[in-house]
Amino acid sequence: MLLAPAVRADSLAWRKEKNSVDADISTWGLVRVLEGIAESTGWQIYLEPGTRRAVSTKFKNRPTDQALDLLLGNLGRILLPGTNGGPARLLVFRNTEKDATQLIKAPRRGAKPIPNELIVTMKAGVSLDDLAKKLGAKIAGRSKGRNSARLQFENEDAANAARDALKSEQDVTDVDPNFPVVGQPTPDGSGTASLPSLKLEPLKNGQGVIIGLIDTAVQMQGGNYDGFLLPGISVAGESALAGDHPSHGTSMWETMLKGIALGDETGSGSQVRILPVDVYGSNPTTSTFEVAEGIYRALDAGASVINLSLGSDGDTPYLRELIREATEAGRVIVASAGNEPVNTPVYPAAYPGVIAVTAGDQRGDIAPYANYGDFVDVIAPGSSVIPFNGQGWRVTGTSPAAAFVTGLIAGNADATGKPAAQAAPVVLKSLPVPQVPNR
């Protein structure tokens, strides 16, 4: 009896440290290949939506440039170095690089917490330092208001042993996992020379709605719009911002101004203020602990609207409980739904009470790169052009969509004199999510 030949599994081995790539591919499509590259390299990969290519190639020990030629064929590509310690960006396109807007992520392997860390919360007045010393842990972050700490251990085994030991500590109220939150892509300055124009003035006769912008540090522009910014807070140390491009936080607060302006129907100006809270510092990534602390500090400073143009696959009770307390107290939380065309939850957007925002394309449909899960509440434009150093910069994704909705809610509240919690439902009704096409 003849045996059927075994089906060969496609493979891609990318050794960054040796600049060497092996591939044996016959059934993967372009997106699957790009997912494999993203998984192996850590690059942020953007594809022009609708681009298709059947990949069939076999090679060994090819350098990166040759490997990309063989894998991508006649498609255009640009590999940009990372900035501020962030990952490199690979743009793949049929027409021009500015059309590469669909973020390609590595395949989901399940959310994994930081293996050697725990978030520990203790009763008020009990020393976290004494506990950390007892456990042999380092305090990598601290929340004085919540009497919580981000504890780092020598390794995963030590963290697991500490978790077991903490079960008998009567002064410990909660022990939670801490999840990584990846860095945000840098806005694109290529091909966006036109500058947006807004008729918006920061009124100085009092202070209205405060927006807590939980993000990277922001750069002041030296113009009239700087009047909307309050002195910033950092929960992750000092940040050294580059001067040649806007940070993600900068692009978010300037996108918020568009929503605020739309709510300023009289044209007389706005009393809305934006409180920047830096949860990244000089690091390319952050964690759910810093995000939670950033929210806590913003709420404590009087913010009634919180913008979270960030997210993680990880669901930690530490962050979920803080958001529950905030929303029950009438604070409005707005979060981006995620730049991946799936229907699986992203946190904090998927937490109850959070306004989850996905991104729309020019036709008003859900953008090809955007999350369309059941937790999504509203849709907003997924592209925003913001000014920086006299040039227009484009930022794309559910991040600017969330920032626009945040500004719209705050602007509506300021214009009507209503609390933000009452203005939010009006905005939700005006931005219904369209039916999701088959994907």
Q: Any overview of this molecule?
A:
Helix 6 runs parallel beside helix 7 (317-328) and helix 8 packs across helix 9. The protein is of the alpha/beta class and 439 residues long. It has three domains: 11-104, Phage tail protein beta-alpha-beta fold (3-Layer(bab) Sandwich); 117-176, RRM (RNA recognition motif) domain (Alpha-Beta Plaits); 210-430, Peptidase S8/S53 domain (Rossmann fold, 3-Layer(aba) Sandwich). Residues 1-8 have low confidence and may be disordered. It has a seven-stranded parallel beta sheet, sandwiched between helices. A four-stranded mixed beta sheet has the order 5-6-3-7. Strands 9-10-8-11 form a four-stranded antiparallel beta sheet, sandwiched between helices. Strand 9 and strand 10 form a beta hairpin. The protein is built from nine helices and 22 strands. It is globular, with a radius of gyration of 23 Å. 25% of the residues lie in helices and 24% in strands.
